[in-house]
């Protein structure tokens, strides 16, 4: 059974191997598969300037195996949209408060990609993103995304606000958009993906273990 673990600066020390595998898979997918050479690192771990202590990593695990993940950052902190792609926001204002969450680095490990079947790893991650945002009181989630995601959000019943016209970035049509976070959105993604209950898990921080910094090195 897949569970999606909420990894923060407070409990990161309990996820040492999982975090290593998570960053290794990000390198495999974004550098080796997608060809984002600017992210290539000699240690084979994909981390960037936004992997700070402000980031929350949603790590999908099947037992001890990391099978997928996503990164969540409050828009009050530096984000990919605010610092690298602010020009994608052409309608309205760039959200810059904690109630808006940037969602980036969504991936599923190659061996666990099962298309659109119910109860997939991807489905668990979609549910986890909305469940996490709803739990912390966020009102919107999104950021920089490829346009091919928009029909998926429609299938989930998510209300999506597109903030500008798409642009070709690294060979993909990309835009800025945010989805509303509410109970209807959570129920919709659960119904669409076949994950009816909570998918989130969390290991509590150990008082006798030092915190593990997530700062990019």
Structural features:
single chain, 217 residues, alpha+beta, Aminopeptidase, nine-stranded mixed β-sheet, 9 strands, globular, disordered C terminus, S-adenosyl-L-methionine
Task: Give a structural overview.
It comes from Microvirga subterranea. Pfam families: Autoind_synth. It catalyses: a fatty acyl-[ACP] + S-adenosyl-L-methionine = an N-acyl-L-homoserine lactone + S-methyl-5'-thioadenosine + holo-[ACP] + H(+). There is one protein chain. With 217 residues, this protein is an alpha+beta fold. It has one domain: Aminopeptidase. The protein has helices at residues 16-33, 80-83, 121-135, 150-156, 183-193, and strands at residues 2-7, 56-62, 65-74, 100-108, 140-146, 160-162, 167-169, 172-180, 200-201. Strands 1, 2, 3, 4, 5, 6, 7, 8 and 9 form a 9-stranded mixed beta sheet that branches. Helix 3 (121-135) packs antiparallel against helix 5. It is globular and about 45 Å long.
